[in-house]
């Protein structure tokens, strides 16, 4: 059983500087246990499987797996899967807009040249973090509680919570204590200095996904955009940098048009070929 396979780098125009994603095409014959086993084998933060759409309004369907479980939605797999689908000859029903079907529903993706952007799904949870959780987070990032200037759940199905620190430099200085952050999917955000090519520095810690920092995170940035813009902490259009602390240079564009928060970036193709699965 041979399937078309791509590996891409998302939120970067340059290979090896974004967040890698593995994509298996036309995966209808693969069962979920095989999908999960392959995601464990690739050992990437996410691996996706493209299938025929079940919803008549969608262009394709995607299933998203970490090495541990299936996700209802994730950001960089959305853009990377769309890029792979288009590169394989996919033609959207509506020019300039691709509609992806996943477990959170239908997600619209805009295409403008090499740039792709998805409409952020609504937040499932957006209340402030409680003090017990904030105390754990402060311990986990090695800072005093007063260093956290603002905070909120930014959960759009991926489970993220987020805290704002006083600067990008403070965000980059953090060394996470993974044991203290156990079970917490945490985003950090801090404003850049004037003159930077981005307005914010973002980091994403996901201990339950192997105790590692995520290079560039679409779902987190989608949640952050709705929080920061809604709270007046960010302009309606901005660029976030992510991955700096681990040698990447991801760039995430955010645009709020009064209706949708569009989360975008470029995608670099790194590997194209085929993968064999046991019959």
End-to-end separation: 6 Å
CATH architecture annotation of the largest domain: Roll
Count of distinct structural domains: 2
The biggest beta sheet reads:
8 strands, mixed, barrel
- CATH C-level class of the largest domain: Alpha Beta
Oligomer: single chain
Q: Could you please say which CATH topology of the largest domain applies here?
A: Diaminopimelate Epimerase, Chain A, domain 1
Please give the number of β-strands: 16
Form type:
globular
What would you say this structure looks like, in words?
- There is one protein chain.
- By secondary structure, the protein is α+β, with helices and mostly antiparallel strands.
- The protein has two domains: 2-120 and 265-276, Diaminopimelate Epimerase, Chain A, domain 1, CATH 3.10.310; 131-259, Diaminopimelate Epimerase, Chain A, domain 1 (Roll).
- It is built from five helices and 16 strands.
- The protein has helices spanning 32-42, 75-87, 131-141, 168-173, 218-230, and strands at residues 2-10, 19-24, 47-51, 60-65, 70-71, 97-102, 105-112, 115-119, 150-153, 161-164, 186-191, 200-206, 212-214, 237-242, 250-256, 261-276.
- It has an eight-stranded mixed β-barrel.
- Helix 2 (75-87) packs across helix 5.
- The mean pLDDT is 95.
